Amino acid sequence: MWGPSHFCLTLCLWACLDALPVAVDKTKVSPPVEDLEHPESVDTGLHYDRYLREVIDFLEKDPHFREKLHNTDMDDIKQGKLAKELDFVSHHVRTKLDELKRQEVNRLRTLIKVKQDMNGEKGMTVDHQALLKQFEHLNHMNPYTFEVEDLDRLIKSATNDLENFDKERHEDFKRYEMTKEHERREHLKTLDEEERKKEEEHYEEMKKKHADHPKINHPGSQDQLKKVWEEADGLDPSEFDPKTFFKLHDTNGDGYFDEQELEALFTKELEKVYDPTHEEDDMMEMEEERLRMREHVMNEVDTNRDRLVSLDEFIIATNRKEFLEPDGWETLEQNPMYTEEELREFEQHLAREEQELNLRSSELLKQREELERQQEQLNAQKMELQQAVEHMGRLKTQKIEPPGQAKVPSAVEILPGDSQPLSQGHQQDLPAHS
């Protein structure tokens, strides 16, 4: 992933591409900027990574904007001064940026709808404008065109988010470690005394085995870099040369060590402690150790705090006493990520979450039962209606009038079995027989 300042680095990329690798004669090698290939971008880890990279790519295609990059330092970029140059880019680029923004707004609206459906709010009216406020990397009040404010927001949001990226990684790892310990302790509660004793003995044995490793060289020290020089580069440690080392490990040739290039230098040291085939070694811990090493070197060497190590900064660092005579390096097992109090608070938090989930589950179960009851009533009503319709259909087919409208016998009709005599008035009206 990109490091915390890699967004600004990408914007400044074309400005520093002429910083060729060490020992290359610039008078002999001077390719035009347009002929240089853009280094492959990697995922920043931001939820708007694709939008960010596409905007950068199109802005770099504009000659005016690219030229301004050569004269703009990183502080000016962070402060939004570069964003104002958007008014001068070509119509084609602005049109494409408008399209990219509309696509991003549609993507965010889809995310909002999906989240709403997952929360059981399907079918409810959504105020997209209100919900879009949470996404600070674009101007949600104008979802159709990409303006200066959009570029300013994108730069500031990405810079801020990426600067907090390492902090979030540390927090994620801390939660991971506490979760692992919590689950271990919960598992022990399910065992009898003898099994629990064996499990705890095995746990202590694995901890001791993991801690039994060769000495770790201080990251960024002469001993540590010489180890890379010898084992990775296959060179004689007695002939170690900082400039040559920098050139060998500046893998993209841009004249800087970025975060990925720095982290790659620590692999040999990490292999002393972590082996993916060993039960006692946790690869998540290895990546946390790598991050700690990189942060430490950056703090000591990156004097202008641009999250890059230039050749000059590197050479200056190799002349310091700390480089030649460093202190020892304490690994993670010597620096616990959390205290017992923090673990207790974490477990209490987990218990509250579980309680809330159980309550929510109970409510959902009740809602489901109510819906099933209502469905049964609807099915019964539907069946009754269907039976009534079928009954009316049979009556119509048989040409029988519906009940309640039975034919009343007329006065002249004599019903079978009726032995009552007719009245005198009725007898007079009867015709005489011959």
Automatic annotation (TrEMBL):
<feature type="domain" description="EF-hand">
    <location>
        <begin position="237"/>
        <end position="272"/>
    </location>
</feature>
<dbReference type="InterPro" id="IPR002048">
    <property type="entry name" value="EF_hand_dom"/>
</dbReference>
<dbReference type="InterPro" id="IPR018247">
    <property type="entry name" value="EF_Hand_1_Ca_BS"/>
</dbReference>
<feature type="signal peptide">
    <location>
        <begin position="1"/>
        <end position="19"/>
    </location>
</feature>
<keyword id="KW-0732">Signal</keyword>
<keyword id="KW-0472">Membrane</keyword>
<feature type="region of interest" description="Disordered">
    <location>
        <begin position="390"/>
        <end position="434"/>
    </location>
</feature>
<keyword id="KW-0677">Repeat</keyword>
<comment type="similarity">
    <text>Belongs to the nucleobindin family.</text>
</comment>
<dbReference type="InterPro" id="IPR040250">
    <property type="entry name" value="Nucleobindin"/>
</dbReference>
<keyword id="KW-0964">Secreted</keyword>
<dbReference type="GO" id="GO:0005085">
    <property type="term" value="F:guanyl-nucleotide exchange factor activity"/>
</dbReference>
<keyword id="KW-0963">Cytoplasm</keyword>
<dbReference type="Pfam" id="PF25434">
    <property type="entry name" value="NUCB1_N"/>
</dbReference>
<dbReference type="Pfam" id="PF13499">
    <property type="entry name" value="EF-hand_7"/>
</dbReference>
<dbReference type="GO" id="GO:0005794">
    <property type="term" value="C:Golgi apparatus"/>
</dbReference>
<dbReference type="GO" id="GO:0005509">
    <property type="term" value="F:calcium ion binding"/>
</dbReference>
<dbReference type="GO" id="GO:0070062">
    <property type="term" value="C:extracellular exosome"/>
</dbReference>
<keyword id="KW-0333">Golgi apparatus</keyword>
<keyword id="KW-0597">Phosphoprotein</keyword>
<dbReference type="InterPro" id="IPR057576">
    <property type="entry name" value="NUCB1_N"/>
</dbReference>
<dbReference type="GO" id="GO:0003677">
    <property type="term" value="F:DNA binding"/>
</dbReference>
<feature type="compositionally biased region" description="Basic and acidic residues">
    <location>
        <begin position="181"/>
        <end position="207"/>
    </location>
</feature>
<keyword id="KW-0106">Calcium</keyword>
<dbReference type="InterPro" id="IPR011992">
    <property type="entry name" value="EF-hand-dom_pair"/>
</dbReference>
<dbReference type="GO" id="GO:0016020">
    <property type="term" value="C:membrane"/>
</dbReference>
<feature type="region of interest" description="Disordered">
    <location>
        <begin position="181"/>
        <end position="221"/>
    </location>
</feature>
<dbReference type="GO" id="GO:0005793">
    <property type="term" value="C:endoplasmic reticulum-Golgi intermediate compartment"/>
</dbReference>
<protein>
    <submittedName>
        <fullName>Nucleobindin-2b</fullName>
    </submittedName>
</protein>
<keyword id="KW-0238">DNA-binding</keyword>
<keyword id="KW-0344">Guanine-nucleotide releasing factor</keyword>
<keyword id="KW-0479">Metal-binding</keyword>
